[in-house]
């Protein structure tokens, strides 16, 4: 199995509330994600899980250490290359889906593909296909406020997938869903791994997801420990 994403000796500090000391949130921690694997990170609230996900996803530079994609150090890329890396190789799903309210479900899903320069026709075809796969073909023209929470999360997933990413980074993707919608989203996530060989990095409190992962890490005291 090949390693697609690797974080080495990642350290991240933030200013404390009083501002006169630094809090070390991540302390020289390491992680490796193999192609096609499902990796889950669990840990107490505030321990640094989201911070780690942002660093691994090229959204927030670590103070020390490196993140590599297929052996290439992402924070040594220039801004444009880093943005392109994020847009083409990664898909992000957050607890609060960050859909753009003024656009329809279909337009939200199409956005990353259009930014990448794909034609509207081919993009729309794929976006409609994803809505179909996710069981909400009739919601294409709805705006986010006209969708249920579970539907919004499925649209966010479809948007994360439009560019055929190699890795999905998901931060509490089922965090604000009821049991039924959690089950639907979980099935979609794990089907993806089966059908498209997508790797998944998940932050979750859901015991069901953790159980179905290849590797579970607990983040504590700034370091990842395999459970
Ligand atoms: N930009 C920032 N500036 C200062 N402190 C920050 C910043 N971002 C995060 N922190 C702090 O770093 C710590 C880790 O935050 P993070 O959101 O990564 O935790 P988490 O494990 O994802 O928490 P939760 O499970 O509650 O979402 C928290 O104490 C938080 O207050």
Automatic annotation (TrEMBL):
Segments forming domain ABC transporter: 5-227
Keyword Nuclease attached: no
GO molecular function: ATP binding; ATP hydrolysis activity; transmembrane transporter activity
CDD domains attached to this UniProt entry: ABC_MJ0796_LolCDE_FtsE
Name of one Pfam family that matches: ABC_tran
Coiled-coil annotated residue ranges, if any: none
Keywords per UniProt: ATP-binding, Lipoprotein, Nucleotide-binding, Transport
Keyword S-adenosyl-L-methionine: no
Gene Ontology CC: one annotated term: membrane protein complex
PROSITE patterns with a match to the protein in the record: ABC_TRANSPORTER_1, ABC_TRANSPORTER_2
Similarity annotation: Belongs to the ABC transporter superfamily. Macrolide exporter (TC 3.A.1.122) family.
Protein name per UniProt: Lipoprotein-releasing system ATP-binding protein
Organism: Fodinibius salinus
């Amino acid at each position: 199995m090949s390693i697609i994403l690797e974080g080495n000796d990642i350290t991240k500090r933030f200013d404390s509330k009083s501002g006169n000391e630094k809090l070390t949130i991540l302390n020289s921690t390491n992680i490796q994600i193999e192609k096609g694997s499902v990796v889950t990170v669990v840990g107490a609230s505030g321990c640094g899980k989201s911070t780690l996900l942002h660093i691994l996803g090229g959204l927030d530079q670590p103070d020390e250490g490196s993140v590599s994609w297929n052996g290439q150090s992402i924070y040594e890329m220039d801004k444009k290359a880093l943005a392109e890396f994020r847009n083409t190789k990664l898909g992000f799903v957050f607890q609060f889906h960050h859909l753009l309210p003024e656009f329809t479900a279909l337009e939200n899903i199409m956005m990353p593909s259009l930014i990448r320069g794909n034609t509207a026709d081919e993009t729309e075809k794929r976006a409609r296909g994803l809505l179909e796969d996710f069981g909400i073909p009739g919601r294409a023209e709805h705006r986010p406020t006209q969708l249920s929470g579970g539907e919004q999360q499925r649209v966010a997933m479809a948007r994360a997938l439009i560019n055929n990413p190699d890795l999905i980074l998901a931060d509490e993707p089922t965090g604000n869903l009821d049991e039924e919608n959690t089950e639907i989203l979980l099935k979609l996530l794990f089907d993806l791994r089966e059908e498209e060989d997508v790797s998944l990095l998940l932050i979750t409190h859901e015991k069901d997801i953790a159980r179905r992962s290849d590797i579970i890490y607990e983040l504590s005291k700034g370091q990842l420990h395999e459970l």
